[in-house]
Amino acid sequence: MKPAWIDALYAEKFFVGCSYHETAKKNERNVCCLDCCISLCPHCVPSHRFHRLLQIRRYVYHDVVRLEDLQKLIDCSNVQAYTINSAKVVFIKKRPQNRQFKGAGNYCTSCDRSLQEPFIHCSLGCKVDFVMKRYRDLTPFLMPCHTLTLGPDYIIPQDLLTDDDMAAYETPRSTVVDGDESMSWSSASSDNNNARAAAAYAATTTHVVRKKRTGFCFCAKSANSYKQVSEDPDDISTCISRRKGIPQRAPLC
């Protein structure tokens, strides 16, 4: 009538230290294994890599899950979602709110929390309770989900991954620098690019004179036609070309 992983989302404590990895860094439990019905930290994830894993997030001191992930497990219609970092999330547990009176608008069926139209549930827990009280069976609202993996933004300690795990959680090569060899290759490539840029700059002998707050002045187009720039402000002003669109500040009073 009700899957065990829903009870695990209610009962398990998240964002607390993992008892199995007390001395490890980043040992907060922020993943729920839906097959084992336990909370996991990043160090526990590799041993559950073939299970259905649901990442738990934190918003306003409450546990939330991404709507995109939760919709793969259960029908989330009529549950109000909130936007965090351009992603919609849903609260897991109830958030009771005491009200002396109700005005116009929608309210949660369990918590009496004010909601936007057309939503009638403020969390996953509120919808589950509503369905169980009215229909006494949650099966029609469950989705067939055999695989559920963590998103690409979830970080797993690299030293705990085997070769097979590294292939599964492979990081794009363009974003990784390995050792001195890659650094030296990058440095040599940078030097070659700088040499080409210097040669191209030398070939084009355009001389640029920069004057503070006056833009750029192109006084010659080649080495043969190069002319010495006079220090006379009148001569310099003739070759100054101000950039368009720069606002002029008013003098301070």
From TrEMBL:
Protein's name according to its UniProt entry: Protein RGF1 INDUCIBLE TRANSCRIPTION FACTOR 1
Database matches in InterPro entries: PLATZ (IPR006734)
Organism: Cardamine amara subsp. amara
Pfam name, any one: PLATZ
PANTHER family per the UniProt record, alphabetical: PLATZ TRANSCRIPTION FACTOR FAMILY PROTEIN, PROTEIN RGF1 INDUCIBLE TRANSCRIPTION FACTOR 1
